[in-house]
Known about the structure:
By secondary structure, this protein is an alpha+beta fold. The chain has two domains: about 15-150, Creatine Amidinohydrolase, Chain A, domain 1; about 155-405, Creatinase/methionine aminopeptidase superfamily (Creatine Amidinohydrolase), CATH 3.90.230.10.
Amino acid sequence: xxxxxxxxxxxxxxxxxxxxxxxxxxxxxxxxxxxxxxxxxxxxxxxxxxxxxxxxxxxxxxxxxxxxxxxxxxxxxxxxxxxxxxxxxxxxxxxxxxxxxxxxxxxxxxxxxxxxxxxxxxxxxxxxxxxxxxxxxxxxxxxxxxxxxxxxxxxxxxxxxxxxxxxxxxxxxxxxxxxxxxxxxxxxxxxxxxxxxxxxxxxxxxxxxxxxxxxxxxxxxxxxxxxxxxxxxxxxxxxxxxxxxxxxxxxxxxxxxxxxxxxxxxxxxxxxxxxxxxxxxxxxxxxxxxxxxxxxxxxxxxxxxxxxxxxxxxxxxxxxxxxxxxxxxxxxxxxxxxxxxxxxxxxxxxxxxxxxxxxxxxxxxxxxxxxxxxxxxxxxxxxxxxxxxxxxxxxxxxxxxxxxxxx
Length: 407
């Protein structure tokens, strides 16, 4: 596996133009002001930390030479990119030169989502969209293009996911062992276990931005619970425990914000301490597990038969199992999220609840499958695995929990 510390890839103009032709688009218009669109910086290979105080536009046509439009006092802003440069000072000049740059085109993609349906790519303000429509442009969402250039992983990146998986599975195993030992020898608490797991992540050569989530009993019914020293609850024999943990490779020189090309691994397991599960715990666990497996199955079937599958369809498979069991009101989040260099990446999510995600699950992408049921004041169970897709196949990348742990 090659060293992939830097996440500063260059723009692939030929690949972008090929994708534009495949999607029957005339071009892709990138626009930014004050770093409102981080997606543009990554896809174009621009410095995400550069000073930007004036609007810039960069247009990639499906055929031909790109065009750039920059303010005269920041005239070098796009000099690292190919194409013909025009400059403006006044707003009138900006609008006139933008219209000239787009002459001969009609249907263009931007970081925009109709009705804000896919808010993860909705970066362009309404006023700019209005301006472009006034000059005759049909603006469509770049969501599928963004998936191609943000979520599709290289072989080296996929290798970093599996490397993180092997290390983090062992960190989690050690965490459960620690809970068992500690509860039988003086006790522990949620925050102490967070610290134990964080130290294990560091020792394993991994990095995480926050967490993990260790929650006991009723706290596990809060899907985004994170204990603090002040709020931490004790973990005792007889308790129900949920651990959600995520990390990526921390290569030498990893910046504090974690912007490397390594890919995350993200899992959730649940268990009971020194007792057997109650009938209700077992019922809820089995329902969540079966919902997880339903999504896994439809994704595997789609890729085995080369059938396109959108994120909402994989979500529906899980949600149908939970609905049939009578627990629909307690499944309060999407089934899964894209995983890439960011934990929640810019590819398709498994979602037909929070959004209707029509983006396709593409080959060489990674995502979680994590249905959950949450009963306030009682407990919550989430069962999370990650999947990697390939052309013709899809697989779960780590250990799979099929029974509640007995710790």
